[in-house]
Amino acid sequence: MRNRMHVLVLVMAGLLMGCGGAATLEPAVLRGPHQGTTLQLPDKTGYVELVNEPEVKDRRSTEPTALVAYFLRSDVRSALDPPPTDVSFAIDSGARRDSRAKRGPPESISLGAEPRSDDPAGAGRFVSKPGPYQLAGLRGTLTANINGQKVSVIVQGGR
Question: What is the dihedral of CA 54, 36, 94, 154, to 10 degrees?
Fold first, then answer.
């Protein structure tokens, strides 16, 4: 009986801890050199770090802010080379409160290349026009053309 109890405790502990297998569908989120949310690109080709400029100090603020994407190499410190092209973000506004209302097409915003020479990762910097793009509540899909291949990264809220 005592052995059965030990096995049961071990099984329950394993279930609570998880196995890290197929249940983990999201890429790992970490902090990049600009202290933004950093997500792995498909096929482990590098990372994209998302930040707001200017930085949002208060989540209740309605001040416009730009969405900035830094495309980084696997070292998460230097710019992806060559930099991507055709960078955009499709904002998922979510379901409306009225469940009968249908969700419209996602708003798509373009991010243009605005490299910074004073930053080791600055060559991979892409910036949107200012708008209501606070990362804390931003959900959608970032797309870019990297080495001739279109890649997409799902974003579900940042810092």
Answer: 140
- Dist CA 88 CA 109 (whole Å): 6
Measured between alpha carbons, how far is 76 from 30 in angstroms, rounded to an integer? Answer: 10
CA distance 112 to 52: 15
Using DSSP's 3-state secondary structure scheme, residue 99 falls into: coil
pLDDT tens-digit profile of 71-130? Answer: 999 999 999 999 999 999 999 976 444 445 556 677 899 999 999 999 999 999 999 999
Among 55, 11, 47, 18, smallest CA distance to 31 is for 47
| Residue 122 buriedness (CB in 10 A; 0-12 / 13-18 / 19+) | middle
Q: What is the pLDDT of residue 33?
A: 92
Amino acid at 11: V
pTM, entire model = 0.75
pLDDT of 22 strictly over 50: no
Cα 152 from Cα 88, distance rounded (Å): 10
Tokens 């080791």 belong to residue: 120
State both tokens at 38.
């950093």
Q: How far is CA 149 from the centre of its chain?
A: 19
